[in-house]
Amino acid sequence: MPVMREARPARGAFIDFEPEATSLEIRGFGLRYGDKPALNDLTLRVPRHRVTAFIGPSGCGKSTLLRALNRLHDLNEEVVQQGEIRLEGRDIHAPEVAVAELRRRVGMVFQAPNPFPMSIYDNVAFGLRLQGGLSKRRRDDIVEWALRSAALWDEVKDRLRASAWSLSGGQQQRLVIARTLAVGPEVLLLDEPASALDPISTLKVEELIRNLKASLTLVLVTHNMQQAARVSDYTAFLHNGELVEYAPTDTLFTNPRLARTENYITGRMA
Amino acid sequence: MRWRRRDTARARLPRGEGPWAWLSAGSVALSLLLLALLLGLLLSRGLGHFWPGDVALVTLEDGRQLAGRAVREEPLPDGSGRERLYRTGNRDLDGAIWDWVALAAIHEVSYPRELLVLERRRWGEFIGRLVALEPEAGPRLEGEAAWSALEARLVALEARREAIRRLREQTIRPLVRRLEREGESAEVTRALAAAEARIGALRASLGGASLVLESVSGQHSIEPLEEVVRARRPNAMSNLDKLAAWGQGVWRFLSEGQRAANTAGGVWPAIFGTVLMVMLMSLLVTPFGVLAAVYLNEVAHQGRLTRLVRIGVRNLAGVPSIVYGVFGLGVFVYGIGGHLDSWFFEASLPSPTFGTGGLLWASLTLALLTLPVVIVATEEGLARIPHRQREGALALGATRLEMLTRVVLPMAMPAMLTGVILAVARAAGEVAPLMLVGVAKLAPQVPVDGDFPFLHLERKFMHLGYHIFDAAFHGGDVQAALPLIYATALLLVLVILMLNLTAIFLRHHLRSRHGTLSSY
Ligand SMILES: Nc1ncnc2c1ncn2[C@@H]1O[C@H](COP(=O)(O)OP(=O)(O)OP(=O)(O)O)[C@@H](O)[C@H]1O
Ligand SMILES: [Mg+2]
Predict the structure, then answer these.
(1) How many angstroms away from the CA of B505 is the closest CA of chain A?
(2) What is the DSSP letter of B337?
(3) Considering CB atoms only, which of A126, A163, A166 is closest to B396?
(4) How far is A149 from chain B (nearest CA, A)?
(5) Partner of B242 at 20 to 30 A CA spacing, among A123, B109, B375, B392?
(6) B212, B224 in Cβ contact below 8 A?
């Protein structure tokens, strides 16, 4: 059960979770792009099988944080990090952790849909093929399951061999979600997954997020306050690379503790 | 309901403001015009050559007569009218095959049906009249009877020549090679002798028949039938006949070897050499270029050194091709080739095997020449692949190598093909470096045949571009070779076009499989 706690009353208001309910734990995490600080001393816990939303003005470091969670920053030689990120209690930067394995456990869906130039089937099977060792039959089953989970199966079941690029933007985004689900992640990171979509596709993706939380931990970055309110259980407000307020979504939106948070969610802060 | 196109009236005018639109449109139009002119020239001059045009019988005011095909007209040097160039053939009788005639001196031009054009193995064309055909035995034939007999005999003659050629290639050549390999053996010697005897018999049956010819100026000559390749009476041919003859001419040009020091005959060995060399070059340059580009773009630390290398590569693309030729000669031919010879082909030294120009070294030199093009094009393709596709692959648990081979390289394939297209376009037209590393004026043996190892990388080869150069500057009579030069140039353009279209088709195929890159 969540425990409200004023960790550092002077700077922010935070909620905390018991360790057994925590999926991801971020402790004193900071990140710089070269000399440019992007994240500063972040500490928060992401609850298991819940939807946690990160909100904040543009450039506050939401994407940076999300990408740190599955070590996508590893490729960027400029990036310097400090602090700790733990997945199910294990440090993700520990030497014995294989990055590829970590990324399979922590899936990521990007802002713009990025299907590969292959058939719909091959896109979903991409991660499975990387792992290898699956019979074709089993792979077909997983592909179907993933597409069903992403609420796309009915739309594409007759054209699995068609190019993924022939799908609409909303379908592509759900395809990318299916592709990520197919490798069986524990955590799904979604970076503004609906920002390029029309309202109907957006609703579908939101519905999907709500359904997925039965089996997954979800982290959602969004600029859309209504969306955060609609789908998330907890919301963290970041500003200038710092965590300002972290609370159950209802509380944060109806009764924010800090004026900064209130200004942002009511639109008084750019 | 009918689909209506967008109103096109507006699209006809260049969009934009002021003179710039017109200026740029004008320069496009000018470039297109020049290109069209080039192609038009090559097409008309090159293809026109094979048309059996009418032969004019020209009677001059002074009573002299000549027969020939009009080639072109020019104003007289003193400006008192124009003169016309006739191609009259008969090098053996007149010593020249051209005749300039002032238009004012012409009394009458007619086109008698019986004028005969003979293509001969020596001396080129004969233009004049057929007086008689003298068979080996029996009475001599005259007039129309001689002409029909000549036509029939030429068909039979062609069949026998073909039989001899086949005997040489399919029986004698393998036997000789066996002899070289296995040494003397009674069986082979006997087979060889039998084949030689059969050729001798065929030769003899070609016969001692001969033609009695008369030029329009009244000179007589006797031509052995054996020397005659073709006989025509163009003025008596219908347009359909001429079209058929034209088709035959074009086909022979494409399929036969050359005659008369590259000023006549076909260019098949040159076509074959050009295409083979370009294909080998593509096979060599593609893997190296792609690997280099992948290293520069995906693996190497993007520091100052990499930038320097990149600039270097780009500048290499501008080095004149002859420099590559010199490099190829020094390093490939004399360096590597020389060593290969002393290690593996000592038996045949001092005559070189790989230590002289050849197909392999030419392909390698051109591969080196086109390497920068492929690297640059591939690198640009790699750089254009959106970051999100790469991250998408990584986020699914792909290693960097898997990301490269399964997502990035397939996506960069069209760019690589673009590089290969550019490389082919550049390589197929290069002549200068080839002269140093292996092109030959005459290499009747194409580098591919039925003998092991089938592809003979050390052989010299012919090339359309060099063929043009050679025919234009080393043939005795440029005037006579000119139509063939045009035809060869046209062919070179077409061959390059074909090679490019193949690659473009491949690229299109790859692209259309998954649509174009979506824009967001
Ligand atoms: N690759 C990079 N190199 C250098 N600086 C970067 C890089 N990526 C992000 N930044 C900087 O880090 C800060 C945080 O960026 P980030 O993308 O995390 O913001 P964000 O909260 O996701 O913004 P948005 O809502 O606009 O997506 C920004 O100031 C940005 O300029
Ligand atoms: Mg972002």
Answers:
(1) 19
(2) I
(3) A126
(4) 17
(5) B109
(6) no
- Which residues, at least 6 apart from B423, have a Cβ–Cβ distance to it below 8 Å? B281, B282, B285, B289, B370, B373, B374
- Pairing relationship of beta strands B141-142 and B125-134 according to DSSP bridges: antiparallel
Question: Judging by beta carbons within 10 Å of its beta carbon (0-12, 13-18, 19+), is residue B42 exposed, middle or buried?
Answer: buried
Please state, for a pLDDT cut of 70, what percent of chain B lies above it. Answer: 91
Report the SS3 class of residue A163: strand
Residue A150 near residue A190 (C-beta atoms within 8 A): no
Considering the domain delimited by B268-514, tell me its CATH architecture: Orthogonal Bundle (1.10)
Tokens 């054209």 correspond to A159
* DSSP per residue, B62-78: TS-EEEEEEEEEEE-TT
Token pair in block for residue B296 = 């520069």
Residue B32 pLDDT > 80, yes or no?
Answer: yes
Exposure string (b/e) for A3-34, b if CB count within 10 Å is 16 or more?
eeeeeeeeebbbbbbeeeebbbbbeebbbbee
0.80 cut: is pTM over it? no
3-state secondary structure of B208: coil
Q: What residues flank ligand 1, with Cβ below 6 Å?
A: A 33, 36, 38, 56, 58-64, 76
State both tokens at B231.
């006989």
- Give span(s): CATH 1.10.3720.10, chain B: 268-514
Q: What angle is formed at CA B87 by the lines to CA B82 and CA B92, rounded to 5 degrees?
A: 135
Measure the CA–CA gap between B150 and B168, rounded to whole angstroms.
27
